UniProtKB/TrEMBL annotation:
<keyword id="KW-0479">Metal-binding</keyword>
<dbReference type="GO" id="GO:0045300">
    <property type="term" value="F:stearoyl-[ACP] desaturase activity"/>
</dbReference>
<comment type="pathway">
    <text>Lipid metabolism; fatty acid metabolism.</text>
</comment>
<dbReference type="Pfam" id="PF03405">
    <property type="entry name" value="FA_desaturase_2"/>
</dbReference>
<protein>
    <recommendedName>
        <fullName>Acyl-[acyl-carrier-protein] desaturase</fullName>
        <ecNumber>1.14.19.-</ecNumber>
    </recommendedName>
</protein>
<keyword id="KW-0934">Plastid</keyword>
<dbReference type="GO" id="GO:0006633">
    <property type="term" value="P:fatty acid biosynthetic process"/>
</dbReference>
<keyword id="KW-0444">Lipid biosynthesis</keyword>
<keyword id="KW-0275">Fatty acid biosynthesis</keyword>
<keyword id="KW-0150">Chloroplast</keyword>
<keyword id="KW-0276">Fatty acid metabolism</keyword>
<feature type="binding site">
    <location>
        <position position="264"/>
    </location>
    <ligand>
        <name>Fe cation 2</name>
    </ligand>
</feature>
<comment type="similarity">
    <text>Belongs to the fatty acid desaturase type 2 family.</text>
</comment>
<dbReference type="InterPro" id="IPR005067">
    <property type="entry name" value="Fatty_acid_desaturase-2"/>
</dbReference>
<comment type="function">
    <text>Introduction of a cis double bond between carbons of the acyl chain.</text>
</comment>
<keyword id="KW-0809">Transit peptide</keyword>
<keyword id="KW-0443">Lipid metabolism</keyword>
Length: 395
C-alpha cells in the first residue's frame, strides 16, 4: 500500500498530518519533535524520554457494534475460498533479486555501472516521487499493525490459522518485497541520500498512521481497497515515466510492484463487495464515513528530521509530475462506486440512502473543486529535499 493526495486539492482534513512550523519543539533530551495541531499537549519539557515525531490526538476506537464481529467469523470459509486463492505461492512469486544485479556474479560491478548510467538520465523530481513511494512501502510494520487493529479479523496470536490472519500475514509478506526492491534499487542508483531516507523510514514507523478506521473491518476494508488501487496507480505511473526516461529495467521494477498492488486491490474490493451483499446498509454507511473523513495516505506522518511539511511537499511533486493526483483520488472513488454497484443498491434505510447519494455524487464534486484549485494555483516554489542532498525541486 502507499500514497498520498495533494494538500493543494482538498480542504485539508482536520487534525492529524501537517503541523505548522511553529509546533516543532526541542525536547529536554534534544530529540527534535514536531507535534500535530494539538500543540498545547506538548511543551518544551514533556518529561517524556522519547516521543514520536508526529502525534495523533483524536482517535475513535471500536465503533463497530460488537455483534457484527459474528459476520466476520461466519465469513471464514468464504475468505478461504475467495481471498486466500488470490495469494501466489512463494515459489511462484517474484523476488527483489530477480530485478537486481547479482552480487555473487562476475558481472556484478558492470551491471551496477549500467544501472547507475541509466539512473543518471532520470530527473530529481522523479527520484523524490520514487523515494516517497519507497519510504511508504518501507513503513510496512505500521500497515500490518493497522490490519491487526480490526475487530473480528485480527491475527490473535501472531500465527493464527483463521483465514483473515493467514491473509494478513501473507499479504504483508508479499508487500515486504516492494520496499525491499525499491530500497536496493535506490541504494545502487547512487542518486539519493540513503541516510536521510533511512531516517525518514525510522521516523515514519515510529509515528505510525491514523487511517481513522476505528477498529472496524468495514472501514478498514474500504480503506485498503482505496489504498491498494492508489498504489497500483502510483507505481504504474512511475513505471511509465521510467520508460519515458529510457530506463526499462526501472520501469519493469515499478510495473511488477504495480501488478501486485492490483491483485491486492482485487482481494480487498472482493471483501467489501461481500460486505455490501451481506450488510448493504452498514457497508454503504462505512464507505460514506471514510470518504467524508477523506482517505488519509499511509505515510501522512512522514518526517525526515528537517522538513516539517515533508509529506505535503512530496505530495505536491507527485501531483505536478502526475504520479498521483487529486484527479486519481476522484477516479478511484468513482471506480469503487462502480465496482460495488453502489448506485443500484436497494432497500436501504434513510441514513443508508443519504450515504449512497453522498458517495455516488462525490467524485464530480471533487473534480470541480480540483479544477477550481488548479485554475487558482500558481507555480509552486522550488524547495530542497534532504533525500537528494538538498537539491531543489519545484513543487
Ligand atoms: Fe499494497
Ligand atoms: Fe506495496
Amino acid at each position: 500500500m502507499a500514497l498520498r493526495i495533494s494538500p493543494l486539492s482538498f480542504p485539508s482534513q482536520k487534525c492529524v498530518c501537517a503541523p505548522p512550523a511553529s509546533s516543532v519543539a526541542r525536547s529536554h533530551r534534544g530529540i527534535f519533535m514536531a507535534s500535530t495541531l494539538h500543540t498545547s499537549a506538548k511543551t518544551e519539557n514533556t518529561g517524556k524520554p522519547f516521543s514520536p515525531p508526529r502525534e495523533v490526538h483524536v482517535q475513535v476506537t471500536h465503533s463497530m457494534p460488537p455483534q457484527k464481529i459474528e459476520i466476520f467469523k461466519s465469513l471464514e470459509g468464504w475468505a478461504e475460498n475467495n481471498i486466500l486463492t488470490l495469494l501466489k505461492p512463494v515459489e511462484k512469486n517474484w523476488q527483489p533479486q530477480d530485478f537486481l544485479p547479482d552480487p555473487s556474479s562476475e558481472g556484478f560491478q558492470e551491471e551496477v555501472k549500467e544501472l547507475r548510467e541509466r539512473a543518471k538520465e532520470i530527473p530529481d523530481d522523479y527520484f523524490v516521487c520514487l523515494v516517497g513511494d519507497m519510504v511508504t512501502e518501507e513503513a510496512l510494520p505500521t500497515y500490518q499493525t493497522m490490519l491487526n487493529t480490526l475487530d473480528g479479523v485480527r491475527d490473535e496470536t501472531g500465527a493464527s490459522l483463521t483465514s483473515w490472519a493467514i491473509w494478513t500475514r501473507a499479504w504483508t509478506a508479499e508487500e515486504n518485497r516492494h520496499g525491499d526492491l525499491l530500497n536496493k534499487y535506490l541504494y545502487l542508483s547512487g542518486r539519493v541520500d540513503m541516510r536521510q531516507i533511512e531516517k525518514t523510514i525510522q521516523y515514519l514507523i515510529g509515528s505510525g498512521m491514523d487511517p481513522r478506521t476505528e477498529n472496524s473491518p468495514y472501514l478498514g476494508f474500504i480503506y485498503t481497497s482505496f489504498q491498494e488501487r492508489a498504489t497500483f496507480i502510483s507505481h504504474g505511473n512511475t513505471a511509465r515515466q521510467a520508460k519515458e526516461h529510457g530506463d526499462l529495467k526501472l520501469a519493469q521494477i515499478c510495473g511488477t510492484i504495480a501488478a501486485d498492488e492490483k491483485r491486492h486491490e482485487t482481494a480487498y474490493t472482493k471483501i467489501a463487495e461481500k460486505l455490501f451483499e451481506i450488510d448493504p446498509d452498514g457497508t454503504v454507511l462505512a464507505f460514506a464515513d471514510m470518504m467524508r473523513k477523506k482517505i488519509s495516505m499511509p505515510a501522512h506522518l512522514m518526517y525526515d528530521g528537517r522538513d516539517d511539511n515533508l509529506f505535503e511537499h512530496f505530495s505536491a511533486v507527485a501531483q505536478r509530475l502526475g504520479v498521483y493526483t487529486a484527479r486519481d483520488y476522484a477516479d478511484i472513488l468513482e471506480f469503487l462506486v462502480g465496482r460495488w454497484n453502489v448506485e443500484s443498491i436497494t432497500g436501504l434505510s434513510g441514513e443508508g440512502k443519504k450515504a449512497q447519494d453522498f458517495v455516488c455524487t462525490l467524485a464530480p464534486r471533487i473534480r470541480r473543486l480540483e479544477e477550481r484549485a488548479q485554475a487558482r494555483a500558481k507555480q509552486g516554489p522550488a524547495i530542497p529535499f534532504s533525500w537528494i542532498y538538498d537539491r531543489k525541486v519545484q513543487l
